[in-house]
Amino acid sequence: MGRRKLRNPLALAVLATLWQKPMHPYEIAQTLRRQGKDSSTKINYGSLYTVVQNLEKHGFVEVTDVERQGNRPERTVYGITPAGRQEATEWMSDLVAFPAKEYPIFETALSLLGVLHPDEVVPLLKERLDALEVQIASGRGALEKLYETLPRLFLVENEYQLHMVEAEAAWVRGFLDELTQGALPGIEEWKSFHEPGPERESGPEREPRPEPESGSEREP
After folding, report:
1. What's phi and psi for 92, nearest 5 deg?
2. pLDDT value of position 209
3. CA 185 to chain centre
4. Helix axes 25-34, 9-18, angle to 10 degrees
5. 61 pLDDT exceeds 60?
6. Where are the beta strands (DSSP E) in 8-165?
7. Does residue 205 carry a pLDDT above 50?
8. How many CA atoms lie within 13 A of 187 on its CB side?
9. Please, are residues 56 and 78 in contact by the beta-carbon 8 Å criterion?
């Protein structure tokens, strides 16, 4: 996988949007929102103009027109260049073909789970599972409605999102069973980690008195 000149996913979303037709940045933002791309790509609309300028700088988009309606400010219309089409194609090919290591925050929490007592973890995971099941039901209902008006090609990211949430819920459910049944290997050591240890004498430790060197006189 080659190193890209631009790695912001918003830049790829802009290229894919301009592939449809030339647009000005405000229209790009509206199209991304209307097509639901803000649910699968983190879109900072405030930085959209900077992204478009960077794409132009690298020759991936170019100015195709300048619109002016009445007293409104001019709007610069951008179109994708042949270099932009090649960049978008190669970028998409890399993303689809090569798994990339991502860092979901829940994974971070799981890696540090030992700081909580198992008895604290159980109700927290139950709360998460409840939220996931609500999310699944809502997502499944929304997806069924979308199938009525849109081809499946434009909904595959929604299917993937729903499948990932379902997979997470299944894992959380299984892990919860292990915790509540005490079947998780190492759970007793995990619990003992949170038990208070023996009391220690407070205050700084004394350093041992140095032994006199050989041949030196000892104090009486």
Report:
1. -60, -40
2. 52
3. 30
4. 100
5. yes
6. 61-67, 75-80
7. no
8. 16
9. yes
CB-CB contact of 21 with 65 (8 Å): no
- 12-24 pLDDT, tens digit per residue, is 999 999 999 999 9
* pLDDT tier for residue 198 given thresholds of 50, 70 and 90: low
Location of structure tokens 């996988």? 1
Tokens of 51: 């992204």
Measure the CA–CA gap between 215 and 205, rounded to whole angstroms. Answer: 29
Q: Which residues pair with 76 in a beta bridge?
A: 66
Q: Which amino acid does the sequence have at 124?
A: L
The β-bridge partners of 79 are 62
Q: How far apart are CA 12 and CA 16, in angstroms?
A: 6
- Tokens 């199938």, located at residue: 147
Instruction: Reduce the DSSP state of residue 19 to 3 states and report it.
Output: coil
Q: Which residue has the tokens 């949007």?
A: 17
> How far apart, in whole angstroms, are the C-alpha atoms of residue 48 and residue 14?
9
pLDDT for 116-170, tens place per residue?
999 999 999 999 999 999 999 999 999 999 999 989 998 999 999 999 999 999 9
**Residues contacting residue 19 through CB under 8 Å, at least 6 positions apart:** 80, 85, 88
Residue 76, φ and ψ in degrees, nearest 5? -85, 125
Cα separation, 89 vs 73, in Å, equals: 34
Beta strand residue intervals within the chain, DSSP E = 61-67, 75-80
Structure tokens at 190: 């995990």
| Strand ranges in 68-204 using DSSP code E only, listed in sequence order | 75-80
Give the closest residue to 6 by CA, choosing from 15, 189, 149, 175.
Answer: 15
